[in-house]
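Hi there,

I know you've been waiting on this one. I reran it after we fixed the sequence typo, so this is the corrected version. Both the input and the resulting structure follow.
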Amino acid sequence: SCDASQLCNCSSMGLDSIPLGLTAKITVLNLAHNRIQRIQSQDLQQAVNLRTLLLQSNKISSIDEDSFQSLAKLELLDLSNNSLAHLSPLWFGHLFALQHLHLQGNSYRDLGHSSPFSSLRNLSSLHLGNPRFSVIRQGNFEGIELLHRLWIDGSNLSQYEQGSLKSIKAINHMIINLRNSNVFSEIVRDLLHSVTWLEVTEIKLPIEKKSLVQNSIRPFRIQKLTFKEAFFTDQTISRAIVLLKEITSLKELEGINCVLEGKGIWNTKEIERSGPSFVETVTIIKVNIQNFHLFFDLEGMESQINKLKRLTIASSNVFMVPCKLARNFLSLLYLDFHDNLLVNNRLNETICEGSWPSLQTLNLSQNSLKSLERTAKYISRLPKLNNLDISQNNFGEMPNACEWPKPLKYLNLSGTQIPKVTTCIPPTLEVLDVSGNNLKEFGLQLPFLKELYLTRNQLKALPGAAPIPNLVALSVRRNKLNSFSKEEFESFRRMELLDASDNNFICSCDFLSFIHHEAGIARVLVGWPDKYVCDSPLAVRGAQVGAVHLSLMECHRSLVVSLICVLVFLVILLLVAVGYKYHMVWYLRMTWAWLQAKRKPKRAPPKDICYDAFVSYSENDSDWVENTMVRELEQACPPFRLCLHKRDFVPGKWIVDNIIDSIEKSHKTLFVLSEHFVQSEWCKYELDFSHFRLFDENNDAAILVLLEPIQSKAIPKRFCKLRKIMNTKTYLEWPAGEEQQQVFWENLKGALKS
């Protein structure tokens, strides 16, 4: 259960005793929320370097006297919420380094007849007491000189021996839960010289007759007195005001969640006779006054408030302050009336002419103010006001012009349901908060503005920098901001803090490039990098902006597409070149011819044979073909029918179809081969299809006549089978002599008849 720093967490493991094997390496041991009943001498003997020991919420009822003897370095010991029926000084005798001790929530009724804490010279905070704790005796706190915090649960404390707490020289903050009002005065008298801040809870304040400073050691140290969940009446509060004036060091009074039973009928004459008050700060939060609407106007208290500097009355149903009373707060600098029932009509009385003459800070947030124009008009009566909070009021709209106090520097209009800002905003402001409204833009001319808060609005871009040239801090958190550019960012020349977190950022290439390369942006952006998350593209949604790096394709799509197009064009060009070199066109033609042939019978029926031979020849050899060969064959007996392209092709018909039809309607195909034939494009077509027919049907339909000597290698390589025929079969060669020519014609006629 131990980590690398030797913090061992064994809480909530159902342990009945302290586990064995604890070593000197352990510095923190958490055994809270188990079922341990007893701590024995040897349990912690080896844990000599332990600094924190947490044993709260067990069932500990017995501790051996020397159980903590080896824990000289222990700084925090928590034994709260156990079953200890008594406290022994021997437990703590060797805890010389102990600073924090928690003993509350046990079952002891007292601290014994001496001090359990006499050896704890470094003790800083002490928590003790429980619902059964009833007695504090003299000497119980001997040995303790200085405490930062003392907390005593004395809800059932019934006996307090005078002087019991006097031995402590200084306590910064003491909290005591005290229901028995009879011991309150005695405790206060013993603490006036030592406590700086005394906090008393659950007390029902008595009507005290004796002085609170009687038998007290001077000079007084107490500066702040807090009552929490206390109960007052008109009589007890009147008497308390008189008695507290005797404590000349007391500067601050605080009441939280208290109940006042009365109508404000205080003994103002006795209060006035007792002299001026030294209290400078009064804070009242959530005071419950039954029938508060019948509460009197505190007439006669004017002389007691003229030196007050800070007043807070919050969440207490305040609906007005009488003008006469308000004019006597001559020294008041700070006034907080947040979360009350102030309305515009009553505000005219509360802030009347001549009231609150020194006021610098005013908080009227969370009230029921409806008109911003009237609110500003009444507040303009405060000549020294520079800080104003009127947030969380439902103004709904903002007029174009308003009156404001001339020194006003800070204005909070957050959560006031204003759809847009106007020149009603005073140009003298240094800090403006218009968060939580429905603003879609911000373009006011505020030359002195240093801080602008636009959180939770509808802005889609940063406000322009030109109208607010001195801006130092800007918050646009939780808006509809998608991104911001380098130019927008750098236009705020004095910007030190920018909070643009919790927006739905579109992580475009330009935005990411700016974020990654802008020097020092991490120092300016508040919440960086955790609160800056991409909303799109979908592939990076939810990722931190600073961790996203888009690919080249995503960032330079047009360039990549252009390069792909160029590459495709080059590939096509290469394929064309390769196709040309390796006669791909010929193969395509052959495929077309093959498809055409598949739709026709492999050989035309005899009735469709019109010619004995189709003659394929070059135009350069036409003289020999037409004047010599045709005359010889067509005038023979019986005559041969020859198909010549010049004479027998069907006009208007596609030439390829003419070639194919003529070959198919001829018994033989006669090729007149020469150098010109090899170079002729149309001869190639005729040779192409005849080549297909030859080797598709495996017959001897072709007759080769060499008009002039030609090597087989001169025939294109793609006609591989035709070249093979020339190498393996007989072909007719036109002779030069007349005698041989007669034999040539006989052989040709014989070939045509076969």
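Quick highlight: The mean pLDDT is 88.

Best,
R. S.
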